[in-house]
Amino acid sequence: MEMTIDFPGGARVDAHFGDFVVPTDQPPSGGGESSAPTPLATFLSTIGTCAGIYVLGFCRQRGIPTEGIRLVQRMRTDPMTHLVSDVQVTIELPAGFPEKYTDAVVRAAEQCAVKKHFEHPPVIRVDSTLAG
Predict the structure, then answer these.
(1) Which residue in 46, 55, 44, 116 sits closest to 91, CA to CA?
(2) Are the beta carbons of 53 and 111 closer than 8 angstroms?
(3) Contacting residues for 106 by C-beta, under 8 A, at least 6 apart
(4) CATH number of the CATH domain containing 113
């Protein structure tokens, strides 16, 4: 997979891949207009949305309605490094959710590919090249 990252103006930095564009921006304090999430917020949102895909698939396979189900993601930041040190994803289940599946739906969410990439991170290299 290849992505192209460009600078459409202001503090915006957008990622393009396939037919998609993922816009990012900075808050006014960072020189932006808050027209889109920051890159970090976009990155962190992939944890909960990926877990949500697995919860959705789990429920679909069993014919369980997803109304009233939601995932709440909370993060703690290390005050010294300002890096996220802890992520908690809580699956809130409605009263009518089958009790026999409460542990299994958590196990399904834990299969998330984003979570697995955090557990086994790729090597990230950055280089440059001059056009022409």
Answers:
(1) 55
(2) no
(3) 91
(4) 3.30.300.20
| pTM for this entry | 0.89
- Residue 76, beta-bridge partner list: 86
- Separation CA 39–CA 87 (nearest Å): 17
pLDDT digit string (tens) for the chain, length 132 residues:
999 999 999 999 999 999 999 999 999 999 999 999 999 999 999 999 999 999 999 999 999 999 999 999 999 999 999 999 999 999 999 999 999 999 999 999 999 999 999 999 999 999 999 988
Buried b / exposed e over 62-92, threshold 16 CB at 10 Å, is eebeeeebeeeeeeeeeeeeeeeeeeebebe
Cα 46 to Cα 7, 39, 40, 73, 107: the distances in Å are 22, 11, 10, 11, 18
Q: Which residue has the tokens 């997803």?
A: 66
Domain holding 50, by residue range, is: 37-119
Domains in the chain: how many in total? 1
Considering the domain boundaries, does residue 16 fall inside one? Answer: no
Residues 120/84, Cβ–Cβ less than 8 Å: no
Q: Is residue 13 a contact partner of residue 7, using CB atoms and an 8 Å limit?
A: yes
